[in-house]
Amino acid sequence: MKWGSSTYVPTEVPSLVAIDAGASDDLALVGQGSPHLTQPPLSRLAYAGGKTFLTVQAAGAPPLQYQWQKNATNLPGATQCFLALTDLQAGDAATTPSSSVMRLAS
Predict the structure, then answer these.
(1) Can you spell out the DSSP letters for 6-24?
(2) CA distance 27 to 81
(3) How many domains would you assign to the chain?
(4) Are residues 41 and 6 in the same domain?
(5) Which helix (H) or strand (E) holds 4?
């Protein structure tokens, strides 16, 4: 249930992905619970030696598990919905950041 800037999704309803209410409307998003990205990482422009921060938003049956990857290899400890990259090098570039950098499971 959305109230202000916080969102609560009851765990007692496993197929419920999200609910929202307004002054004159209500919305319940029901799914089969499969994890999926609702907002993939956005493209970023960063310079060699610089840093950037990637985030994703996901929905699905809890608990959601995140794993960031580079070249199809898991990045150790990169298991949150965000990824901080520092000391960037040319080899860190990707043309499509959402193509294979995030693996999601529930």
Answers:
(1) EE---TTSTTEEEEEE-SS
(2) 25
(3) 2
(4) no
(5) none
The pLDDT of residue 79 is above 80? yes
Which residue is associated with the tokens 């840093």?
Answer: 51
DSSP 21-89: E-SS-EEEEE-----EEEEPPPP----TT--EEEE-EEESSSSPEEEEEETTEEPTT--SSEEEE-S--
Q: In the structure encoding, which two tokens stand for residue 26, read together?
A: 């209500």
Ramachandran region, residue 16 (left: φ > 0; alpha: ψ -120 to 50; beta: rest): beta
Q: Does residue 42 share a domain with residue 21? A: no
Residue 93 three-state SS: coil
Which residues fall within 8 angstroms of residue 45, CB to CB, at 6 or more apart? Answer: none
pLDDT computed for residue 36 by the predictor? 81
